[in-house]
Amino acid sequence: MKKILYFFALAITLSACGVSKPVTTKATKYPDLYSEKPITLLVMPPINKTDNVEAKELLYTSVSYPLIEKGYYVISPLLAMEVFKQESAYDSEVFINGTLEKFGQAFGADAVVFSEIERWEKQGTGIHTDIRYIFRSTHTNKVLFERYCKLYLSFKGNYSGGGFLTNLLVNVATGLVQTAANDHIRAARIANSYIMSDLPVGTYSGFFGQDGESAAEDSEIEVSLNASSF
After folding, report:
1. Which domains does the chain have, with CATH numbers?
2. CA-based nearest residue to 34, from 144, 111, 114
3. How many of the other CB atoms lie within 10 Å of CB of 28?
4. pLDDT of 128-171, one tens digit each?
5. pTM value surpassing 0.85
6. How far apart are CA 160 and CA 5, in angstroms?
7. Strand 143-154 to strand 126-137: parallel, antiparallel, or no bridges (unpaired)?
């Protein structure tokens, strides 16, 4: 009986060990990004799949900063937008699966950053955003980096006491009439931060070439946060 129990316990132990998730390094997960070493990035206007017409502009204005922090040179979105409009290239849907060589020639970009907004709406006391980023090479057209984030950012308890009317009057009195827009921008920035957290650093980072053996994070993440923490 003791032998049976021993082998039963051993089987459970081996089974538990067998299902442990192997660690994937960034170099293994993003091999083409490490081999191509893109320096200059071109950010395309977001692809908005929602009914929120402002989401596209709100996200577009918040993309560059986390990329620059990661050590990449980002072509000015404002300057790029002027060219997009002149060349009728404003609709990123047309290019996301196509050849990107002409963007490399026109802008000197090594990779193009596409984003897709799958959800962006007010929900309860917060904002829910579902955003996907795809980095594609202008040299090989390969996908260098792709990540998706579902973020719910709650603003509950973010404002001082009083009812709705009181808070509204305070906001108007202090000139904070852009509160709603600012909340959406904060949601976009936080979502970007979470998505870019797994992006290997670029040439202008002091840690360039040193993060290949770091553990890669999940390609799809779901996060619920309170805005008061930021």
Report:
1. 24-229 (3.40.50.10610)
2. 144
3. 12
4. 999 999 999 999 999 999 999 999 999 886 543 344 444 444 44
5. no
6. 61
7. antiparallel
